[in-house]
């Protein structure tokens, strides 16, 4: 619902002003036909949604978070994580993992794997820096020259 002032502005400036879609992505449509969930959480807006989430949220150790962030694979086997029991206790679908609630990571959990929902390049560095585990080797391999 838009305000009266915005509506008035649009009507008076219809030929000179173009309103573009703006905002933050909170959910993405899940296009997989085998899943019953139609939407999944988006990494972009998870910091704003996390205070309202009570389910599908798991606190994990730094070791597991580093393993998740450093991997180049799209699928991470649950068996390779120390937090596998906590993750399996949740239902399949979107799952938020965090070591610190201010830096959550959105994932998708299947019966045996974990999929991370973020860009695997510069976001790697951002999250690793926040975890105070920044490595210069990673930085040199990801930053454009």
Automatic annotation (TrEMBL):
It comes from the Eukaryota. It holds the Pfam family Pre-PUA_NSUN2. One of its GO terms (cellular component) is cytoplasm. InterPro entries: Pre-PUA_NSUN2 (IPR057285), RCMT (IPR023267). GO terms for biological process: tRNA methylation. GO terms for molecular function: tRNA (cytidine-5-)-methyltransferase activity; tRNA binding. Residues 13-53 form the RNA cytosine-C(5)-methyltransferase NSUN2-like pre-PUA domain. This is RNA cytosine-C(5)-methyltransferase NSUN2-like pre-PUA domain-containing protein.
């Amino acid at each position: 619902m838009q305000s009266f002032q915005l509506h008035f502005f649009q009507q008076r400036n219809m030929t000179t002003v173009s309103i573009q879609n703006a905002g933050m992505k909170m959910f993405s449509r899940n296009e997989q036909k085998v899943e019953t969930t139609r939407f999944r959480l988006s990494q972009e807006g998870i910091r704003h949604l996390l205070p309202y989430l009570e389910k599908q949220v798991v606190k994990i150790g730094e070791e597991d978070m580093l393993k998740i962030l450093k991997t180049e694979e799209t699928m991470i086997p649950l068996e390779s994580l120390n937090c596998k029991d906590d993750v399996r206790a949740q239902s399949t679908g979107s799952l938020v993992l965090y070591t610190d609630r201010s830096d959550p990571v959105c994932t998708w959990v299947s019966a045996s794997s974990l999929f991370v929902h973020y860009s695997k390049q510069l976001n790697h560095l951002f999250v690793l820096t926040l975890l105070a585990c920044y490595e210069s080797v990673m930085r040199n391999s990801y930053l454009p020259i």
